[in-house]
Amino acid sequence: MSEPEQQEQHLDFIRTRVKSDQASGKNDGRVHTRFPPEPNGYLHLGHAKSICLNFGIAREFGGLCNLRLDDTNPVAEKTEYAEAIQSDVRWLGFDWEERIFHASDYFDQLHAWAVQLIEGGKAFVCDLTFEEMRQHRGTLIEPGTNSPYRDRPIEENLELFEKMRLGEFSDGSKTLRAKIDMASPNLNMRDPVIYRIIHQDHPKTGDKWKIYPSYDFAHGQSDSLEGITHSICTLEFEHHRPLYDWFCQNLGIHHPQQIEFARLNLNYTVMSKRKMLRLVQEGQVKGWDDPRMPTLQGMRRRGYTPKSIRDFCEKVGVAKRDNVIEVELLEHCLRHDLNLCAPRRLGVLDPLKVTIINYPDEQVEQVDAVNNPEDPDAGTRPVSFSKHLYVDRNDFMEDPPKKYFRMSPGREVRLKYAYYITCSEVIKDAEGKITELICEYDPESRGGDTPDGRKVKGTIQWVDASSAKPCEVRLYDRLFKAPDPDKVEDGGDFTGNLNPDSLQTIGSALVEKSVTDMGTGKPFQLERVGYFCIDPDGQESGNLVLNRTVAMRDSWAKANK
Ligand code: ATP
Ligand code: MG
């Protein structure tokens, strides 16, 4: 099969559709998508999928993608969120150029359209309370009943709607509803509310409005105004599509095609702004940007690269049915990217002192360490080496099993980039805890070769005692201990599934000095230990705090070989 044919086969159902629309000359062959977050929280990995899809399709089909803040509910929305959204979309690597819009940009037009519907006898002012409306709505198997206000004369509707606009009625006392069909099998078509009274200032429009359009009355029309061709959204909006279509048809405006796909779900993770807000408010995490959170801000702070997230979204693809993706796939994409781009450094999480008894007392030398074996252009850096070093306690066993190739008494190992050493004495404190290893080095083994060509099986990392930098290291585990955090026994909620050990702090790790130059949030590999990055905490006090981005072991790659 030729390569273009192969690619053809791999087009998902949305791209297939976009492609055929373009080929048939629909919308004059234009492709225009949008990413429409509501600024009521921070973006999460699920949003990243939607961003990659919308901006990706625009890019692939020579089209455009808008950023639209869907700000129709001033009660939950904040400027803080709107700003973070923009920063996150940019960080992920996408550009809306000058096309940033707000649903609130269209409030005048939406109001005029509401008036148009009233004038056409297609909308009415209803005095039912939300509770009464619910009782009138019927169920999936029973039709609803008409509101007693449904047949209000057009003039009266216009007058009441105007009074709603002027703020003459209290919140919830009246609504404007579309007059569609209370017997429709689709509950969304049973005279849906299109305007609500909310006496609340809006971040963009101030105190101008006392009435705000519903999501359904704003979304499709905003798409239409922007000339969107394909309005891609998640499955829960499938049953809203008839309403989306109804508004476009009855207003006689440009009619974008809504297409639904399955939202991204990840095991061991909650992916809902509402639930994440609770974690933040209850202090279960340190904030929206806690490195354990699946928010883009949290992932960024943890050291995720934008590329790893884009790769993940591409690998996951788009589906028509709900499914759950394994978090290991996300970590696999992260490791894959970090392996290629992350500089290597030396560090030990649990330092154990080593004294090289035959090394000159005052001598300090520089050994060359490879910055990234995957990237020949990354070069080397000097790392200082002296008589006093630290290795990781994990890399020593006093009484090792047969196949143990790291340090033990009498066994020669290689210190990465430096010399072969052999432990000759183990020093312990009064409780029997090992406090120091006395070793001898082979001066001829620098860089890992000896004149006699002998080989050692173990290579371990180390740091130089006099120049190493102490740091705090934060090791993260999954935030939830259950694959499906929402599945709870005995009546609790998802917070009952929080993993009490999701954060482990190590107070006394040591890293080579050059780690201090890495810059916040820029991931690097501590050789043999894992990937890490500098956390902004500690910047002010001058302390070094590291987040573990991800451990080395890739269980996903192993299982899927
Ligand atoms: P949440 O349920 O977390 O509050 P939301 O859907 O209410 O998310 P919006 O701000 O309305 O958040 O979403 C903006 C866009 O991102 C929408 O088009 C929505 O369909 C999409 N989106 C949200 N969550 C996901 C997800 N988990 N997977 C894919 N797309 C998503
Ligand atoms: Mg929402």
Layout of helices and strands:
Blueprint: H1 3-9, H2 13-23, E1 32-35, H3 45-60, E2 64-69, H4 79-92, E3 100-102, H5 107-119, E4 123-126, H6 130-136, H7 154-165, E5 175-178, E6 193-197, E7 211-213, H8 215-225, E8 230-234, H9 241-251, E9 257-261, H10 273-281, H11 296-302, H12 306-316, H13 327-341, E10 344-345, E11 347-348, E12 351-356, E13 364-370, E14 380-386, E15 388-392, E16 412-415, E17 420-428, E18 434-441, E19 459-460, E20 462-464, E21 469-476, E22 503-511, E23 524-526, E24 530-534, E25 545-551, H14 555-559
Parallel strand pairs: 1-2, 2-3, 8-9, 10-23, 12-18, 16-19, 21-25
Antiparallel strand pairs: 4-5, 5-6, 6-7, 11-22, 12-15, 13-14, 15-20, 16-17, 17-18, 21-22, 23-24, 24-25
Question: What can you see in these coordinates?
Answer:
With about 550 residues, this protein is α/β, with parallel strands linked by helices. It folds into 3 domains: about 260 residues, Rossmann fold (3-Layer(aba) Sandwich), CATH 3.40.50; about 170 residues, Ribosomal Protein L25, Chain P (Beta Barrel), CATH 2.40.240.10; about 110 residues, Ribosomal Protein L25, Chain P (Beta Barrel). The strands form 6 sheets. A 7-stranded mixed beta sheet has the order 10-23-24-25-21-22-11, with helices on one face. Helix 9 links the parallel strand 8 and strand 9. The protein starts with a helix and ends with a helix. Bound molecules: adenosine-5'-triphosphate and magnesium ion. Adenosine-5'-triphosphate (ATP) binds next to helix 3, strand 8 and helix 10.
Task: Please describe the structure with a list of short key phrases separated by commas or semicolons.
Ribosomal Protein L25, Chain P; 27% helix; binds magnesium ion; 14 helices; Rossmann fold; 7-stranded mixed beta sheet; 25 strands; single chain; binds adenosine-5'-triphosphate; disordered N terminus; 561 residues; alpha/beta
